[in-house]
Design brief:
The chain is mostly beta strands. Helices cover 11% and strands 38% of the residues.
Length: 510
């Protein structure tokens, strides 16, 4: 079924992804399975080397039960993606990214990545991912690897990715293994990423074969779609670091094809509270910001397409609100709005446009060895002097990107530059370190530096243009540029210490 002919069900596998209907079929190497369009119930109807397997891989559960039905479901590249709204019982917006890849010795890893985001200030999400095989007995091969041997001569491993195992606890029962995930605290503006894997191996696998498959999985780089605050799961679970959230609850990507996204919206980030829709932020350089009257805290009461009858938002879920806002570029939308100050209802007319900022964070970063954008200019937050990268030719430069809305950024800079006593004594360093704000306005960045008492660092503002030119994958982010003006490294989540470069600056991680 992977020959490109059309079928009633989707064919989804590495190198050949498309979607149709309510079920998605996975074919990767010797592994064949079926996934509901929701992605929550796990991978089932399995076969390996054409032998049916009585097993269900990676079923996602929360303390309140299953995730709510997905309000978005699509195939992007090699990933099948579903998006689930937060609920009162589980207040986390969740995305599931399913994929698969061949491993050593004929093994195949079915992978699942989970992304969690919340509007709460300080909380800990808890969820579990279960793999059940009624005809097998689950046992621990190692502390973080569960092994199930099937009578069909097949071995299944369930494990968290080695880099993220500390965030997971692996339990076994007679015929199942469960990965319980409890990441560090989560707060508004932060996304937690989980990486999991279920590995299917031919035969009663030896310890050497298992070790080789696990090593192959550990060396596998994350999907390029994970860099934009996504994560991978494959009978393996792993948690990544903290990154700030590109708005995904409204004005999200409208894709003509998986590789050429077109964003059509008005440029607002919404949240749902008590069955009502409120504006969290108006993005710069968008139809909403150009119109000028919409502001954070405003309630959107109803939405209309052109001259059609308005649709009230009362009682609707966030995904439904988002769907009403999105549409084709150039089409008109009418918003009925109540201002944050309680004024009477008013109607705002906007024309949907390409919301460029939604594509800024979460991109593939500039590759190591590429030329850094020489014309990017920064403004010093203290002196207001302008500084360009071109003027630093011959000097190694470390750019530490941050924004006022990035809590991990603020905490890191607080630790390194919070007071004069916190700043290490001057050291002879071979690089110039710039702490670059990408806030919408320079005044916002300047107020943040002043109000938090940061001293001892060279704080500059690059704004939207800097984040676009450097193709930031997320925040916090550190980019090292060598003396010849080429990218030496790009590290997502690096600390904001006073050193010239992060500890892993020579690595190729992004």
């Amino acid at each position: 079924m992977s020959d490109g002919t059309k079928t009633s069900e989707a064919i989804w596998c590495l190198g050949d992804a498309r979607q149709a209907g309510e079920r998605v079929e996975l074919r990767c190497g010797a592994l064949h399975g079926v996934l509901s369009s929701d992605g929550v119930a796990g991978l089932e109807a399995l076969a390996f080397n054409d032998t049916p397997l009585l097993a269900k891989l990676l079923t996602v559960e929360t303390p309140a039960g299953p995730l709510p039905p997905a309000y978005e479901s699509y195939v992007r590249g090699a990933d099948h993606v579903t998006t689930h709204a937060e609920t009162e019982a589980f207040p986390f917006r969740t995305q599931l990214y399913w994929s698969a890849k061949p491993l050593a010795d004929g093994a195949v890893a079915a992978t699942l990545s989970v992304s969690l985001q919340t509007d709460l200030l300080d909380t800990r999400p808890d969820l579990s991912v279960q793999t059940s095989v009624p005809t097998a007995t689950a046992r621990l091969w190692k502390e973080d690897v569960c092994r199930l041997d099937l009578a069909d001569g097949v071995t299944i491993l369930v494990t968290p990715h080695p880099s993220d195992a500390e965030e997971c606890v692996l339990d076994t029962s007679d015929d199942a293994c469960r990965l319980r995930v409890s990441p560090p605290f989560l707060e508004k503006g932060v996304i937690r990423r989980i990486r999991l894997a279920a590995i299917v191996l031919p035969g009663q696998a030896s310890d050497e074969t298992i070790a080789a498959a696990l090593a192959d999985l550990a060396d596998d780089p994350p999907s390029r779609y994970m860099l934009g605050n996504r994560f991978l799961i494959a009978a393996v679970i792993a948690f990544g670091g903290e990154v700030t959230a590109t708005p995904t609850t409204a004005d999200t990507l409208m894709a003509k094809s998986p590789d050429q996204p077109e964003v059509a919206g008005i440029g607002v980030h919404l949240r749902e509270k008590a069955g009502k829709g409120f504006v969290v932020r108006v993005l710069p350089n968008t139809p909403a910001s150009e119109e000028g009257s919409l502001q954070a805290g405003d309630e959107i009461v109803a939405i209309a397409e052109g001259e059609a009858t308005p649709v009230g938002l009362a009682g609707k879920e966030l995904g439904d609100m988002s769907s009403l806002i999105r549409g084709r570029v150039g089409t008109e939308i009418r918003l009925t709005v109540i201002s944050v100050n309680g004024e009477t209802e008013r109607v705002i007319r906007l024309v949907r446009g390409s919301i460029e900022e939604l594509l800024v964070l979460g991109q593939d970063p500039l590759p190591v060895g590429a030329e850094a954008p020489p014309l990017v200019e920064f403004r010093n937050l203290e002196s207001d002097a302008t500084l360009s990268l071109a003027s630093l030719d011959g000097t190694k430069v470390v750019l530490k990107f941050w924004s006022t809305g990035c809590r991990p950024c603020l905490r890191g800079i607080d630790d390194a530059y919070g007071s004069p006593s916190d700043v290490p004594e001057e050291q002879a360093v071979a690089a110039r370190v710039l702490l670059v704000s990408i806030d919408d306005k320079i005044e916002t960045a300047r107020k943040t530096v002043e109000s938090r008492g940061w001293t001892g660092g060279e704080f500059v503002w690059g704004g939207y243009e800097a984040s676009k030119q450097f193709r930031l994958p997320g925040l916090p982010c550190t980019i090292v540029i060598d003396a010849d003006g080429h990218i030496e490294s790009c590290v997502l989540g690096a600390a904001y210490d006073a050193q010239s470069e992060p500890e892993n600056a020579g690595d190729s991680e992004r």
